[in-house]
Amino acid sequence: MISRMIGRKKKFLRIAAALLALLVLFAAALFFFPQPFLCVDSGPVKADVIIVLGGGGAHERPVRAAELFNQHAASRIIVSGAGDDEINRRALIRYGVPASAIEIEGLSRTTRQNAMYSVKMLRAEHVHSAIIVTSWYHSRRAFHTFDHFGKGIKFYSCPSHFWYDRGTWSHEFTRQVYLEFIKIPGYWVAYGVCPF
């Protein structure tokens, strides 16, 4: 009886050690290779509208949105995000997007609000599909947030891929990347936004 209990305890400890080792390996993989998990890229797509989110750095998001617009991925762009809206609008114009093709959603201050306020605009305009443009590290949370709040609208993700070379990562950029590993489960718990 005692030897059976000891045997079970040893088996349990081996299983627990194996699970812990797997967890450590998974955490290390996320730390050293965050892009495969954080980045959602739909590839070459076409939609009714492009939605470029505020934030990022070095105009990477409006550059990517203008690139998609100039490739005829969509015929107009919604700029979403209070504070960055006018900066991104001016950048889009500088990169070749006509002012008449740009709409502003300038109330949102979070990814959730980006989705809620933009989806309201899309529904009012009877839009059926949209391309989300944001930074690669933000694309999983942004894509699934829009998909969660915009049922019935087809969303695609075409993020910018600037700054993936780790040698160029600043302290602030590194912080933004790894904060996503907290924000993604936070959105799942708080708003029901499943990241898968």
What would you note in describing this structure?
β1, α3 and β2 (77-80) form a beta-alpha-beta unit. This protein has a 5-stranded parallel sheet, sandwiched between helices. The chain has helices at 2-32, 35-38, 60-70, 85-94, 111-124, 139-149, 171-191; strands at residues 49-53, 77-80, 102-105, 129-133, 154-157. The protein contains 7 helices and 5 strands; from the N terminus they run ααβαβαβαβαβα. It is elongated and about 80 Å long. The protein is 52% helix and 11% strand.
Overview features:
alpha/beta; Rossmann fold; 2 domains; 52% helix
What's the short story on this structure?
By secondary structure, the chain is α/β, with parallel strands linked by helices.
What topology emerges from the helices and strands here?
Blueprint: H1 2-32, H2 35-38, E1 49-53, H3 60-70, E2 77-80, H4 85-94, E3 102-105, H5 111-124, E4 129-133, H6 139-149, E5 154-157, H7 171-191
Parallel strand pairs: 1-2, 1-4, 2-3, 4-5
Helix pairs in contact: 3-4, 5-6
Shape by Cα distribution: elongated
The residue fraction in helices comes out at 40-55%
- CATH topology category name of the largest domain: Rossmann fold
Name of the CATH class of the largest domain:
Alpha Beta
Low-confidence stretches: none
**What is the total number of structural domains?**
2
**Rg, alpha carbons:** 21 Å
Strand order across the biggest sheet?
3-2-1-4-5
Number of strands: 5
Number of helices: 7
Structural class: alpha/beta
Which H/E pattern describes the elements?
HHEHEHEHEHEH
- The fraction of residues in strands falls at 5-15%
Please report the distance between the alpha carbons of the first and last residues: 46 Å
Q: How can the largest sheet be summarized?
A: 5 strands, parallel
